[in-house]
Amino acid sequence: MEYYPHSRFDYEHAVSKNKLDSPGLWRCFHFEFQELPEGVDIEKLAQKIYNIFRSLPGCFYFDPRTKMSAFCKMDSTIIVDDIVYKIKSLINADFMCRLGGAVCY
After folding, report:
1. Which one of 5, 21, 44, 66 is CB 3.0 to 4.6 Å from 33, fit for a cystine?
2. pLDDT tens across 56-69, in order?
3. What distance in Å separates the CA atoms of residue 105 and residue 90, rounded to the nearest whole number?
């Protein structure tokens, strides 16, 4: 997985950087963190979240205004709830996670 710090998610960029041979297996996670606890470094948090996705094909985007996106190829062994649980274990803060699939034209 490629890491793009200080970049907003760009669907066209993500698709151009990956071979979508099986569009149904690609997912896009969008994370938005609200009020982070005092002392939490958002860039270090982004690195930790990136490490969850690191072994998967795809792209990880980190926008320092507390938004992160992971565009990745997932197989049936990866469970979304497990990913959310891992992120919750990294930080005690509220966050929103939206999940979407890849659409290819």
Report:
1. 66
2. 999 999 987 768 99
3. 37
Nearest to 28 by CA among 88, 102, 78, 81: 102
CA distances from 14 to 7, 27, 78, 100 (A): 12, 11, 20, 14
Neighbouring C-beta atoms of residue 32, cutoff 10 Å: 15
Q: H helices of 8-105, where? A: 11-16, 42-53, 80-90
Cβ neighbours of 19 (radius 10 Å): 8
Low-confidence spans in the chain with pLDDT less than 70: 23-24, 66, 76-77, 101-105
Domains and their CATH numbers in the chain: 2-101 (3.30.70.100)
Q: Strand 67-73 relative to strand 95-101: parallel, antiparallel, unpaired?
A: unpaired
Beta strands 58-63 and 67-73: pairing type?
Answer: antiparallel
